[in-house]
Specification:
With about 425 residues, this protein is α/β, with parallel strands linked by helices. The protein has 9 helices and 18 strands.
């Protein structure tokens, strides 16, 4: 199955916590703090895999998480860094942030991309020793890794795109011009997913040709298969518009040509303005040559080159290859999308962000990111660490706010997972 769009959740590893430890050795009293640092969390990294052609791997697995950093140990031993998670994607995959829709990276060039950075490991208590605080019994917690939902969108890296109504001979033309072997049959929507082929025009001159599943009217609004695969024409430098001029389908060639261009314009005006070569196919079974010449005259009057050919008999195929190679020489390279994503600015947690609310009349809930960070740095079982915690709350004005809101002696104050009885 060809899958060219998927949404996944990625989570980088959290940093490990710093350790609280002290040097213990015979005849060495008061050895001092030796708590090691926590390891950094692993990153989530996207890399290009040349052997992948679809996003099928992401159809069933939607959550990806990197390794968590290990906690620090005694004897100044740092925790092991979390293992990076490598996610392989096909070349040409565009990475978008789901929340904003902004492009984060175009995986066309091949460089790895860190889509989520791991958290930093926390410091052990060895870093907090001072002349007046020689036995710190607290360490720093690791920071969380980045977490986000991203959209993977595969846009084929092709120089030339074959577009047109179903059953006009695009797949046959691709098989004749290249070594690609797409499914070919005499019914609509034989081609269910894009096919790529490399066409060799002459020595050291080649280009990539993509056969896009047949479009119909309303494709830009989701009708037929075209809406799902129009994205694969986005990068094409040149469009080869294939029109059946044999009359075998009972349709008017000019009406078909205008209908497909209208769908391209509805999907992307920029795409509709790309250079085109118009090809009249199935010349071997054409019955009305006047119709062919009238179509040619109208196309050339619009300033577009026109070639008539028969893929079945190879008539005119060589001329088309030469014309495509000539036109591509004057066109810019395949589009590579520039990143648009701007990471949201992370504001540092401050005491002003703390919320205080009362429940059940005598229970006070104190919540906020600043408080969570503070609790991660202290050990409430240690007297010195507990005094540091008390001073931090007082300096942040938490006690004053509780007093202003009417807290009474004996009320319960809940800080994260800890409960205290308020004493004035």
């Amino acid at each position: 199955m060809f899958v060219d769009k998927a949404t996944i959740k990625v989570k980088a590893g959290n940093g490990g916590n710093g350790a609280v430890a002290f040097h213990r050795e015979k005849y060495v009293p008061a050895g001092g703090p030796v708590g090691g640092d926590g390891g950094h969390g692993g990153d989530v990294i996207l890399v290009v895999d040349e052997h992948m052609s679809t996003l099928m791997d992401f159809r069933y697995k939607r959550k990806y998480a990197a390794g968590t950093g290990a906690d620090g140990g005694g004897k100044r031993c740092s925790g092991k860094h979390g293992e990076d998670l490598i996610i392989r994607v096909p070349r040409g995959t565009v990475i978008r942030d789901e929340a904003t829709g902004a492009i984060m990276r175009d995986m066309s060039a091949g460089e790895p991309f860190v889509v989520a950075k791991g958290g930093r490991g926390g410091w052990g208590n060895q870093h907090f020793a001072t002349p007046t605080r020689q036995t710190p019994r607290f360490a720093k917690s690791g920071t969380p890794g980045e977490e986000r939902r991203i959209v993977l969108e595969l846009k084929l890296l092709a120089d030339v795109g074959l577009v047109g109504f179903p059953n006009v001979g695009k797949s046959t033309l691709l098989s004749v011009m290249s070594r690609a072997r797409p499914k070919i049959a005499n019914y609509h929507f034989t081609t269910l997913y894009p096919n790529l082929g490399v066409v060799y025009a002459r020595d050291e001159v080649s280009f990539v040709l993509a056969d896009i599943p047949g479009l119909i009217e309303g494709a830009s609004e989701g009708a037929g298969l075209g809406h799902e695969f129009l994205r694969h024409v986005d990068r094409c430098r040149l469009i080869v518009h294939v029109v059946d001029i044999s009359g075998s389908e009972g349709r008017e060639p000019m009406a078909d040509f205008d209908a497909i261009n209208a769908e391209l314009a509805a999907y992307s005006p920029e795409l509709a303005s790309r250079p085109q070569i118009v090809v009249g196919s199935k010349m071997d079974i054409a019955q009305d040559m006047d119709l062919v010449e009238a179509f040619r005259a109208e196309i050339e009057a619009r300033g577009l080159p026109f070639l008539s050919l028969s893929a079945a008999t190879h008539q005119g195929v060589g001329d088309l290859i030469s014309l495509i190679a000539e036109r591509l020489q004057g066109l810019p390279p395949v589009v590579v999308y520039e990143p648009e994503f701007v990471p949201p600015e992370e504001k540092p947690a401050t005491p002003e962000d703390i919320t205080i609310r009362v429940v059940d009349g005598d229970t006070w809930l104190v919540e906020g990111a600043w408080l969570d960070l503070l609790l991660g740095r202290v050990n409430l079982d240690d007297y010195e660490s507990r005094m540091y915690f008390e001073r931090s709350l007082k300096q942040a004005g938490i006690y004053d706010r509780l007093e202003e809101m009417g807290v009474s002696e004996g009320d319960t104050v809940v800080l994260a997972d800890f409960e205290f009885e308020y004493q004035k």
